[in-house]
Structure formats: structure tokens, C-alpha cells
Amino acid sequence: MSETTADFDVDAWREELQAKRAEKDEFFDEHPQSPIPPEERDEFEGLDYFDPAPDYRVTATATAHDDPEVVLLDTTTGREMRYLRTTTLAFDLEREDADLEDGTYELAAYQQERPGSDQEEPLFVPFRDKTTGQQSYEGGRYMELAPERELEDGDELVVDFNLAYTPFCAYSETFDCPLPPEENWLEVAIPAGERFE
């Protein structure tokens, strides 16, 4: 499986993170499929981010759901999208102000229901936290995880909140974005990843 938090090079990680952010800024600024409306791109000066925070790159333990439950996620336009809850990810955050005594949190990970598709979908992790609507987008943020193989109970994988991103619907109403369900509302601030004020 992927490397854990104990054995990674912080400097190399920080450099790679900054490179990804620069690449995304370029996409938003210049690409025809940028969510920034064309008439607003001249004023675009780059996305806003929390400072890189290695503490929010955590190792999560997976619980795989052999018979995934269908979950209907509400969207920003009032529709519903069908997803399968395939995995639950449990992880620790070392936070003095954690609301949970043991500092352990869980997030559900979903895959879009695509009957007949052989293509392996990434794990979709939409979430809200205590920065939502203040320092980050009011509709929550997303992460996508691509494990090297199908996860089994007890597998560990890295969840890097520094890669949490704002859905495209924050920039244009032409997009329809799923909203994080209540089971993925974290009762703690995650000051990592993209900001949006």
C-alpha cells in the first residue's frame, strides 16, 4: 500500500504540493475547461490555500463494505446523485481541542454508481469541518483517493487534507456538485488544503 506518515520526506512532499498548486492555478487561469468564467479570468490571481501542514497528512485505517449501501447525495442545484458507500476511513488527529475524547474521526468514502463499468472509480470523500463557511467553501470540500488496489479491512492509506479542494460550483453556477452528507461533517477544524472566503 502507499507510504505512511512515518516514512515520508517532508521537504519533498512540500515541494510536490507547491508544484501541484501552481499547476492547478495555471489550469484555472488558462484552460478552456476552467470553472472560472472567461470574463473573470483576467482578475484571477491564483487559488487561496492554507499553509502546507504535515500534521493533516494522516494514516487512515479502512473498513471495506462488501455490500455497499446506496447513498443519495444532495447537490447544489437540488438534485440527488447516487453513490455507493464502499469504505469507511478512521484516522487520528492530534488536536488539543478535539471534541472526541480519543481524537479518532471517521469519514465515509464513496464511489459513483456506474452499472456495467469496468473502470475503477477513485474514492470520493466529500466533507465539512469547522472551517466550512468561514475559511473554506460553504458547500464543503472534496478529496479523491486512488488506492493501489481494492481496499480490505485493516488496510492503511494516506489521507492528505492538504489536497482537499473546493468544488467547481463555488466558481460558477453552471456546475452541479454533491454536498457532503451529515456523516461526513467533522466536528473539528481542518486548516489544510484550499481556502475559500
TrEMBL record:
Organism superkingdom: Archaea
Region of interest (Disordered), ranges: 21-53
Transmembrane segments: none
Biased composition, class Basic and acidic residues, residue ranges: 21-32
InterPro entries registered for this protein in UniProt: DUF1684
PANTHER family in alphabetical order: DUF1684 DOMAIN-CONTAINING PROTEIN
Name of this chain's protein: DUF1684 domain-containing protein
Source species of the chain: Natronobacterium gregoryi
